[in-house]
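PROTEIN FOLDING TASK:
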Amino acid sequence: MPPLLTPLPPDYDAEVARMAAFFNETLGFCPNSVLTLQRRPAIAKAFIALNQAVMTNEGRVSSAFKRLIGYVASHAAGCQYCQAHTIRAAERYGADAEQLRHVWEYSNHPAFDDAERAALDFAIAAAAVPNAVTEAIEQNLRRHWDEGEIVEILAVVALFGFLNRWNDSMGTPLEAPAFDTANKYLAASGWTGGKHVPTTHASGQNPPSAPAASRPRRDLAFVTLQILLMGAYLANPEALRVALPEAVRYAGLVFTIGGIGVLAWAFVNLGRNLTPFPTPKASGQLVTEGIYRWARHPIYASVLIIALGWAAFSQSGWRLGLFVALWALFWAKSHYEEQLLTQKYPQYEAYKERVGQFGPKLS
C-alpha cells in the first residue's frame, strides 16, 4: 500500500532541516515522518523540539532505555515503523545486546533489573487502548523511580502515542538503515515492516524481501511438523488395528462430526486473522468473541477431537498414537504462540486468565 503522503526533500524547509540534524545522532538520518510533517513547518519544528525535550536525560532514565520504552509502547500500539526506529536508536545509544534481543522477556530475563521491569510494565499498560494502568502498576513504578523520572517515562510513551498514530495512518515508508536494524533484532519475533516497506527506497534500491526472509524458524518448524503428522495420520490406516466396541466406534464418529463443526465455527470467527503460523499477523486483531469466549485455541482443539474420533471409528492404533503426537505438538505450539500474542496484545494476559486453552475453564 503506498503512503498517504510522500516525504518531501530534506531541504524543503531550511529551519526544519537545521533542527532535524538532531536525528543524525539518534538514527543516522532524518526520518521520513519528519520529512512528511514539514508540509506544515510549524508542526515539524514543534515536534522536533518536543522530541528533543522528551529525550533529554535529567535522571537515571538513559537515552538507550528511553528508546526501549518507546519500542514496547510502539509494539503495544502495533506500529512497525516506530518499532524499527526505536530499536535502531536504542542500539546506537549503546543498549545492551541482550536487552535488545530479549526485550519481550524483560519480566524474567537477567539483562533487566526490577526498576526497568517496572518502567516497561507501565509503558505497555499506558500505551494500551483502553488504558491499562492499574494502581499496582503505579505503586511498583513509584518504588523504583522518582517523580521527575516518571514524567520522563510517561513523556516517552505519550510522544510515541503521537508517532504511532501518525506513521501507521500515514503508512510512512521505512528507511533502509532502520529496516536492517529491525530485521536483525526483531524478525525472529515476527516483525516484517508491514505496509511501511515500500517497493523501492528513495535511493531507487529495492529493500530486502522482509516477509519471506524473516519468517521465524520456529514458525516453519511447527508447521512442517504439523503437516508431517497429519500426512502420517492419513497414511497407512490399517496399521496397528485395534478392536473397539461398536458404541465406542460410533461415539468416535459423533466426535468427528462435532469437531468438524467446531473447526468451521472457529474459522468463521477468526476470519482474516487466520494463519497456520504461530506468529500472529502484523495487521491482525485479537479475537475473543464467538467460540473464542470458551477456548483460546479452538482450531487445535477441533483438530484433536477429529483425530481422536476418527481414530476410534476406524479402529486404528496407528491413528491413536498420532493423536497423542498431535496433542503434544499443539500444546507446545500454543504455548509459543501465546508468548507472541502477549507481546502483541497487552490484554491477552487477562484473556488467558479467564479462558481455557483447548476448552472452557472448569473453574
Q: What stands out?
A: The domain at 217-354 is CATH 1.20.120.1630 (Four Helix Bundle (Hemerythrin (Met), subunit A)). Residues 317-344 form the longest helix (28 residues). The chain has two domains: 14-213, 217-354.
